[in-house]
Specification:
Elements: H1 3-15, H2 18-25, H3 29-43, E1 48-51, E2 54-57, H4 59-82, E3 91-98, H5 102-116, E4 120-127, H6 129-137, E5 143-147, E6 155-169, E7 181-182, H7 183-187, E8 190-194, H8 200-209, E9 217-222, H9 225-233, E10 239-242, H10 243-251, E11 256-261, E12 266-274, H11 281-299, E13 306-308
Parallel strand pairs: 3-4, 3-5, 7-11, 8-9
Antiparallel strand pairs: 1-2, 5-12, 6-10, 6-11, 6-12, 6-13
Amino acid sequence: MDLRQLRAVVTAAETGSVTKAAQLLYLAQPAVSRQISSLEEELGVQLFDRTSSGMRPTAAGLAFVTRARRVLSELERARAEVAPTREAVTGIATIGILGSVEHLLAGPLVEVIGRKHPGIELHLATAYSGHLQQWLDDGDLDLALLYNLTTTQSVRVLPLLRDKLWAVAPREAGLRADQPVDLATVLSHPFIMPIAGQHGIRLLLDEARLHCDVQPRVVAQANSIALQTLLVEAGHGWTVLPGAGVSHHALEGRLSAAPLRAPEIVRTVGLGLPRAGKTPPAVEVVATELLTLVRAAVRSGRWASAELITNAVPSELPAVRDGAAGTA
């Protein structure tokens, strides 16, 4: 087994075609086919189903591709970290950012790393907190912002701030950031419900509804913040979302939004890092810059729904080398 075989298998799986894989790898198509076939023979399993429409990974192929992709990623990281450079820190940092705050943090993080640490290559991923945690556990992320997670056996979490959920309504409703709205009032309108099991907000919302004697009239369920926002903007109903994800839409006049009360729904945002292994210098640098951006976004009011946890957001990342333990 060699790297050429791994690249051939991963590229064929991603493109669904030996021809396209050969083009991307700058190889002849027969060479790619031989590499895949020889690896299948070595492993004693079929990695692909060959059809007239292309290459489709088998169950064994999917499992192998997942592992092979990580091997190639680690080799890419190693190459970047040892490459000659005049910069003090080099390497790759793979970061998970919550979808509700990607507009606040992704661009500024890319800008500051490019300006201050050009030897670092950023890989960014955005998703719900549950997916980000799974990717951390699987080793696909170096660090991530997470909601409502304490330190576990595999992930160390540094609590950063408390983030409030907001009521979100069509522009005509006239909600305002300085006038909180009761949850019962929100639920009395046609409601766009987060889908259970896919949306952490749904669990918090179901718990909060126990304090209200109102049965919502659900007009639709949605599995993404973007889709909920789109439906509200179109006038189909009200919903509940992180304030950070909608306050800029309200400022643009696309919808209206206000903090929830009676009860408030609050989530803790933390920075999660794997506990196993040594934290690469590039990851430490990026984590420190991310903490600085989080603090600035809250203090400037751009992260409108958040308040910092006292002494929780340091100016640099606490020691996390060699899997240092800690509690959140």
